[in-house]
Amino acid sequence: VPDIENVIAIGLENRHDLMNVRAQVMDARRRVEIAANALEAGLDITIRGNQGLNPDAQSNTAHSAGVQFTTPLDQVLERNVYRQALVNYQRARRTYMEAEDRIKQSIRASWRQIQVQEYRLEIDRTTVRNAALQYDSASLQAAGGQQTNALSLVNALDSVLQAQNSLVADWVTYETNRLNIFRDMGIMEIDPRGVWTDPFYLQMDNLPVGGNVSSPASPPDVCLLYTSPSPRD
Length: 233
Fold this sequence. Notes:
The structure is a single chain. The chain is about 65% helix and about 10% strand. The chain is mainly alpha-helical. α2 runs antiparallel to α3.
């Protein structure tokens, strides 16, 4: 079962919005390289010459050569473009780091919340069992002719109902958090119908119509549904 760090690595590897921000950083880096190339010093050598048709006429022949050297200090416009490219690159890097931190924070929050809900479900199951045992005890006392208060039986039945309602509510919250962590990790796959292709619910859809389930299914663990990929370089 992967731990929280592996889950975060999966999220950073599969989030498409983070991929777009990473691509913007690479584009900004390329712009810096282009601006740096334009800022390099330039050396131009020019050679000019005129040659007449008559080789004996020296007055019609003229040759000249020149050298022009441009230093980076003279390229004010290119230097400003290069500095602006550096600023944009650093800004893109900070934007990427902020997006990465936000994804990590959301995944950690969803991970902690789903662990809390797993403990709450276990507590709710125990509460339902205890309430059912109390109701059975009250029912046996009433069937045995023992003196009992009808209010005790009603209270026991009400405790069972409240425990079941709490179990269902926590189950819904658990499934909502599980959906959130799949979304935060970027591994939620949607079919052409717009339905989440979750293995747990696909298995439930394959049950025969009208079939009886002997025991309620246990909530799936998000860690067991997907294996951890190799760490990034």
